[in-house]
Amino acid sequence: MQARTPNANSIEFNCGGFETLSEALDYAATGVTGLNFYSVRGELEYVLTYAELQARATEMAARLSTETEPGDLIGLIAETSPDFAIMFFACQYAGVLPVPVSVPVTLGSNEFYKDQLKRICETANLHCLLAPKSILSVAQDALEHTQIQVGNLDGSDLSRETSPLRPFAADGMCYIQFSSGSTSSPKGIVGSQKSVTTNCRAIQLGLEARAGDRISSWLPLYHDMGLIGQFLAPMMAQLSVDYIDSKSFARRPSTWLKLISENKATHSYSPSFGYEISAKRWRGGELDLSSWRVAGIGGDMVREEALKKFADVFREHGFCEKAFVPSYGLAEATVAVSFSPLRTGFQVDVINSDIMRSQQKAVPADTSTEDRNRRALIACGQAIPGHEMKICDDDGNEVEERVVGRIMFRGDSVSPGILDRDAGILPLTDKDGWLDTGDLGYWLNGQLVITGRHKDLILWNGRNIWPQDIEWTAEHAGGRHIPKSAAFKLSDDDGNGHIYLLAECKARRPEQREELMSEITANVRQTVGAPIEVIFVPTRSLIMTSSGKLSRMRTRQKFISGAFELEHANSELV
What we know:
alpha/beta; Rossmann fold; GMP Synthetase, Chain A, domain 3; four-stranded mixed sheet; globular
């Protein structure tokens, strides 16, 4: 049986001295590190050294070049596998743009996934889509009435003829990444060689990567931290990586921790919910997490309770709470925007949410603040090395400390733009290079604190209501019976607005559900001071992104389309 790739390399550590991904892989291939793929129980299934990755990717690229033109777009269904890694880099060497797309949540009939896949493929005007054999029929069914050909991700359908390689130059493109929030109009975000290599370099510097480090990851490879932070950035630093896929993590989160322990991983990232379920499902056993230097949190708003619970459970197994690194990022900035300071843990700011809703100011809670108006937010640090960040009001003026405003970001990591099949690439920045992230936040002692998405804000009688306030209140009132919820506003035919809360409910007895409904309705009304309609839906029916973040936009669209099975609702608006 092949051994996993080592932590120590045989070549000199080179942190970010590359202008293209293919140049970086050419160097990594001269060493002995690489990628390791594990089963749900942590058995090593496949080892792909960077040397083998480079050899197989260039061989595949020579075949790919015979069937494509430079700049063609190739869809890749991004299962966590050697085939995806090889084909992604084959595209780099062939000068064609990979378009990673997600795998379906379940196999078989999945109409929502098929519809989304079709929309993405048509928006991108793909040359072809390559899918793993296990879901080839799903992809073929989705694209049945299009002109887009579907082939095997392992390249077995490609011609055996070869053509010269034509790798992207430093000023070339790199990939197209479709936003996890995409709905009826998928948004293809362009990654260039410059934006990607710059962001990878900033990740390495910001997280203090060094020779001998090792990555452990369960994040999906089709976008954001999974693709950039746990695949491309480690390769650019010649670091070994251990993978389990997202479904395996959901079934046995302890495998993630087992790999960190056994292989002495130093860096690993997860949304808050990953830490939460790891602690919740831990049943004890041998574990040594003392090597874990950077326990990153990203993908959603960081939750204090989840991190504290994880630290409490795994402290006896060598985990240090100061390893936590709350972070902020988005696809339009490649991925990373800010990291909190290393070796300091997380900084909590408990504010008065009632004042924030009415005055757009993050005023610290005090002894007179009612519990329902106490909201704990976590600082996410400063801009990544070589980049700038500012917070502005709606008129573009920078705001003072603790004033909520729009988060703006500038630097070479910013995407060149959005892919438009008719107009080409549409820029994302203003004339001065600033990207409006669409997120809201405030400054706290020089660190960024995220409060939510601007587009998710609910305007009610002149007040801004954060949907998180509604959701957190409902989940607190419902306890273990309400694992997730989503709040949003809709307008009826007469233009009247209504606030809806869709809450996943585990309770089954009718009287228990009635009691929960009343409790949630009363608590939310008291907290935000606005009428809401509470609707119970089945567990696991709210739409989450691959990184575990609630997609309010897609959940709202699903509700409008009538696709939810509505189990219980309050009979009238509160």
